[in-house]
Structure formats: structure tokens, C-alpha cells
Amino acid sequence: MDAIFTLAPEQRARVLERTAARIPGCLYLFLWAPLVASPLIRSGHLFCLDAWIGGAGGGRVRAAFEAYRGSLCAVVSGCVPRWAYRDGRAYMELPEPDLTASASLQVQQELYHVSKPATSPSILRTIHSNCV
After folding, report:
1. So what's the pLDDT on residue 99?
2. What is the Cα–Cα distance from 49 to 9, expressed in whole angstroms?
3. How confident is the model at residue 82 (pLDDT cuts 50, 70, 90)?
4. Start and end of every DUF7050 domain (predicted)?
5. Is 43 helix (H, G, I), strand (E, B) or coil?
6. Which of 2, 27, 51, 62 has fewest C-beta within 10 Å?
């Protein structure tokens, strides 16, 4: 999966879309990468290098998706997105209360809340790829 970080944006978008198509119930994907420290930003944060969202959900879901996509996430043990590659898994599937509890940002909780699938309210599937 690390090869995706070296792809051009158009190629990366195709890989994310194909990946999502192979995972039943996938609502969105976020590709997180470590932020290089600068004088204004300390290290230990992730930024969204790229993301994919399915067509369902409407304006509230899209707005929450874009807000989360634009966030910087601190690398916090036990929180998404840092937690996603625990034990080398390619994705995480958590009951909604556990997913919400693992959010490190308020905007994340909003995305999880507004994107609940109507047919399966107890399970949300989220994929957060990262290289940390």
C-alpha cells in the first residue's frame, strides 16, 4: 500500500476508487501522510494526502467529508487515523460507538454521525491509510 504515496494524483484517485469498490459498504477513504515539521507546525501530525467519497449521502455528508479532509490530525495512540494500521490490517471495521469514541477531532465525529448508512446504523466502515 505504501506505493500509493508515490503515485501522481490522477493515478492515486483511480487506486482509491478501485480499492473502495472492492470493499462492501465502503463509504469513504482517506489517505493520511505524516506532516513534515516546520517552524509553524510541530511534528506528530498527519494530513490528508488524498481522499475518495462515494456518491451517496448528500450535502451534509460531503461538507463533513471535506472538513475532515482539510484537518490536521495529531498522531494519537488509540485514535483514528493513527489506529488504522494497527496489527497490519488494511482497514478497520468498528461498531459506530467505538468509531465515534476513537475520533481525535470534532469534525471527525460529525462525519461519522452524518454518514451512517441507513441500512446498517450499527456499523461504519472507514479506511484510513497512513505510513506511520
Report:
1. 74
2. 9
3. low
4. 1-114
5. coil
6. 2
Degrees to nearest 5, angle at CA 1 with 74 and 128: 35
Specify the range with the lowest mean pLDDT, choosing from 27-41, 62-76, 111-125: 111-125
Give dist(CA 11, CA 7) in Å, integer: 6
- In angstroms, the CA 63 to CA 61 distance is 5
What whole-number percentage of the chain has pLDDT above 90?
9
* β-strands 72-74, 45-53 pairing: antiparallel
**For residue 8, is pLDDT > 90?**
yes
Which burial class, exposed, middle or buried, applies to 124 when counting CB atoms under 10 A from its CB (0-12, 13-18, 19+)?
buried
103 within 8 A of 6, measured Cβ to Cβ: no
**Whole domain around residue 23: which residue ranges?**
2-129
The C-alpha cell that represents 108 in the structure block: 471527525
DSSP secondary structure string, 81-97?
TGGGGGGG-S-EEEEHH
Number of domains in the chain: 1
What are the residues whose beta carbons fall under 8 Å from the beta carbon of 55, sequence distance 6 or more? none
